[in-house]
Amino acid sequence: LDNALRVFLLSLRIPERASHGSNALEYLLEAFSRRWYEANAGHLDFNKDHTHRFVRAIVQLNDLLHGGIARESAITKVPQRNASSDEFVETFRRYDQKSSISDGLLRDVYEAIVYERLFQCPGSNTHAEAIIVERATPSSLTWRVESEPVILRIL
């Protein structure tokens, strides 16, 4: 999951959170986790909700240690804040009390994020495309109830 998330982020240039009314990153992470789960469900011991929580936990850990998803690929520096793998596992267990995702996997992902922060597609001097969310994404969705369409414009 960690490697797939890294590949996904390297294919996007995500708008700044503060400059848009909706949180494009959150919407994209939800779509990524849903699709990753669908592709791997037969090999997993956890459900779609746990997958989304795990993806969000990875991004939050990266934010905590490195101050966010980097806009440029560079050597990962010493983490800005100190958080142990035990704290990461303990925090995640609040949402996964049955330990559907193993401690070993959580610790492996922790080590991967400490060693190399998350990056997104390099800056505008490449062929990166901007993605703009034209409508606010729904704050909640109900299973099997159609929502208003979400329109993404890729520049």
What does this protein look like?
A two-stranded antiparallel sheet has the order 1-2. Helix 2 (24-40) packs across helix 3 (48-66), helix 3 packs parallel to helix 5 (103-115) and helix 4 (85-93) packs across helix 5. It starts with a helix and ends with a strand. The chain is globular. 19% of the residues are buried. It has helices at residues 2-10, 24-40, 48-66, 85-93, 103-115; strands at residues 131-133, 152-154. It is mainly alpha-helical and 155 residues long. The chain is 43% helix and 4% strand.
**Total helical segments:** 5
- Distance N to C terminus: 28 Å
* Class from helix and strand fractions: mainly alpha
Portion in helices:
40-55%
Helix/strand order = HHHHHEE
Share in β-strands: under 5%
Query: Assembly state here?
Result: single chain
Principal-axis shape equals: globular
User: What is the number of strand segments?
Assistant: 2
Contiguous low-pLDDT stretches (5 residues minimum) are: 18-22
Short description:
By secondary structure, the protein is mostly helical.
What's the helix and strand layout?
Elements: H1 2-10, H2 24-40, H3 48-66, H4 85-93, H5 103-115, E1 131-133, E2 152-154
Antiparallel strand pairs: 1-2
Helix pairs in contact: 2-3, 3-5, 4-5
Key terms for this structure?
5 helices; mainly alpha; two-stranded antiparallel sheet
